[in-house]
UniProtKB/TrEMBL annotation:
Protein name: LacI family transcriptional regulator
Record InterPro entries: BUG, Bug_dom1, TAT_signal
Cleavable signal peptide: 1-26
Family statement: Belongs to the UPF0065 (bug) family.
CDD domains: PBP2_Bug27 (cd13578)
A Pfam family hit: TctC
Keywords (A to Z) from UniProt: Signal
Length: 327
């Protein structure tokens, strides 16, 4: 039987390619600019974080990392764009827990699967939230707050930055854990409900540090406690809700980096190393803390993937119990 020499060589090359191609790709990567998608309008915390990391990765990797804003549809447009992009490491996204762990339950249908269509790279930051009230609010701690709520079911109100945001879902979790009835008042963004708390028209708000801390330091509102498992380096003087009466309660927001599913593992590992290196830089850490977020990397891409799955299951339970739907 005659053997085609060209076909034999091609076949041999194909057989050995998988053994060396990923390593060669990682060594050469990046060979051109990388796009970092921010699924939100310019100017917010997501955009600022994206640009901070883009600048540092540009300097570290020797190729431009360019931020592209693709806002709309509750973060879905930017997420779908990345899910459908080539899995080559040249399109990545910064995503919040809302985009990755909440939307799957909040929306009846998404044009992608958050657990299947993305390759986790690493978490990059977490942002603590705190329960704030007016300085003259009668409850001094979480126990007193819950006692007031139980005595007047539905009378106390809480504001939020919108349906499905951490300020909304975190309070829904507090309602369930504290066995209380609170009335939700949704706003568009976090600043309006904070102003309503200051004015006394809304009882409480689960506020991010970026928005709430200036009002706390200025005496306009009082922090009953931080919702994280541990005290925050941003405000070590403020106790957690867990240590003051609401045992095992924890709500923390986060951002992470992802690529399209199928991105070569060697490229994902390279990106993971670079992001963690940025998080170790003193200047980067100081800039992040100034934004009201805390540096927080993942041990590995796989560990970040497990974390996303756990967060998805956790918030699905909250969304389902409360009967929340977007739109």
């Amino acid at each position: 039987m005659a053997i085609n020499r060209r076909a034999l060589i091609a076949g041999a090359g194909a057989a050995i390619a998988p053994a060396w191609a990923p390593a060669a790709l990682a060594q050469a990567y990046p060979a051109r600019p990388v796009r970092l998608i921010a699924p939100i309008l310019p100017g917010g915390v997501t955009d600022i974080l994206a640009r901070l990391f883009a600048l540092r990765l540009t300097e570290r990797m020797g190729q431009p990392v360019v931020v592209e804003n693709k806002p709309g549809a509750g973060l879905i447009i930017g997420m779908e764009h990345v899910a459908r992009s080539a899995p080559d490491g040249y399109t990545i996204i910064i995503a919040s827990q809302g985009a990755m762990a909440v939307n799957a339950s909040l929306f009846a249908r998404l044009p992608y699967d958050t657990l299947r269509d993305f390759a986790p790279i690493t978490q990059v930051v977490e942002f603590p939230v705190m329960l704030v009230v007016r300085p003259d609010f009668p409850a001094a701690d979480i126990n007193a707050f819950l006692a007031m709520a139980r005595a007047q079911p539905g009378a106390l109100t809480f504001g939020s930055a919108g349906i499905g945001t951490i300020s909304h879902l975190g309070m829904e979790l507090l309602k369930a854990r504290g066995n209380v009835d609170l009335t939700h008042v949704a706003f568009n963004g976090e600043a309006p409900p904070l102003q309503e708390v200051i004015a006394g028209r809304v009882s409480a708000l689960l506020a991010t540090f970026a928005v709430g801390m200036p009002a706390v330091r200025g005496g306009q509102v009082r922090a009953i406690g931080i919702a994280s498992r541990r005290r925050s380096a941003l405000a070590p003087d403020i106790p957690t809700l867990a240590e003051t009466g609401l045992a095992d309660f924890s709500v923390t927001g986060w951002f992470g980096m992802l690529a399209p599913a199928g991105t070569p593992p060697a490229v994902v590992q390279r990106l993971h190393r670079e992001f963690l290196a940025v998080l170790e830089e003193q200047q980067s850490r100081e800039r992040l803390l100034a934004l009201g977020v805390e540096p927080q990397g993942s041990e590995s891409p796989a560990a970040f993937g497990r974390f996303i799955a756990e967060e998805t299951a956790r918030w699905r339970e909250v969304v389902t119990r409360a009967g929340i739907r977007a739109g």
